[in-house]
Amino acid sequence: MAKPRPYVLSIAGSDPSAGAGVFADLKTFEAHKVYGLGVVSAITYQNDDTFTGVDWVPVESIIRQVELILMKFPVKVVKIGLIQSLPTLKTLLDYLLQVNPEMKIIWDPILKASAGFTFHAEVNQLTLQNILTKLYLLTPNAEEARKLALANSTEESAEHLSQYCPVLLKGGHREDKLGWDMLHLATGEKYSYRPKVQNATPKHGSGCVLSAAVVSNLALDYKLSRACLRAKAYTARFLSSNSTLLGYHKI
């Protein structure tokens, strides 16, 4: 009989193409041999290259979905993706940490769809700082980091945000070091993860996959820096799996 797998939870949007959001997270979890549970925070209307709209799931309905999951399954790590607003996120975080104060929560801050649809035009800094202090890890890309920190410099943005929680700055949208990921810790310590594949092509949902891979490795008891390194390698294989916008998942 197989060894029991740790449980992880994704709270994210549903993407009919299954390239991003909760469906992509579940694929990533399964590839890592952790048991993935999924809660829908938004219904999106999209495929791999076109986004036309979103219907938000009320926070009460999100919590209602989560409640029965946490009642039965000992979830070690949670990933939150697409979410309606910062107040919604704060309410959700407060609930999760009330259920389990030791829960590791990763937020992948999706502020804009790759097709150009903007979700969060304004960021309240006081609310954001309160949220960051409740997170185990934040995983923004360069544009998201600058918007969250209200700064022009990507590196300065990550350093500012890391005052409140560790920040894994994703390198897919970086202009200075394309493909280089950087983990910033509150202590000032940094870990750099360089791209190692030459045949990578852009993929829909690659940021979701990277953050879900980090979650998986944390649930497998890897330390944060090692979990990020392993997630980087997994995402590289995803990016080089084929030449289309929808990647294949393989460990």
Descriptive account of the structure:
- The chain is an alpha/beta fold and 251 residues long.
- Helices cover 37% and strands 20% of the residues.
- The chain is built from eight helices and nine strands.
- Strands 3-2-1-4-5-6 form a six-stranded mixed beta sheet. A three-stranded antiparallel beta sheet has the order 7-8-9, with helices on both faces.
- Helix 2 packs parallel to helix 3 and helix 5 (142-149) packs across helix 6.
- It is globular, with a radius of gyration of 17 Å.
- The protein starts with 6 loop residues before the first strand and ends in a 12-residue tail after the last helix.
- The mean pLDDT is 93.
Number of strands: 9
Radius of gyration: 17 Å
What is the CATH C-level name?
A: Alpha Beta
Report on the biggest sheet: 6 strands, mixed
Tell me the count of domains.
1
Helix/sheet category: alpha/beta
Globally, the shape reads: globular
User: What portion of residues belong to β-strands?
Assistant: 15-25%
Distance between the termini: 21 Å
* CATH homologous superfamily assignment: Ribokinase
- Percent of residues in helices comes to 25-40%
Total number of helices: 8
Q: List the strand order in the largest sheet.
A: 3-2-1-4-5-6
Low-pLDDT segments, ≥5 res: none
**What CATH architecture would you give?**
3-Layer(aba) Sandwich
- Average pLDDT taken over every residue: 93
Short description:
With 251 residues, the chain is α/β, with parallel strands linked by helices. It contains eight helices and nine strands.
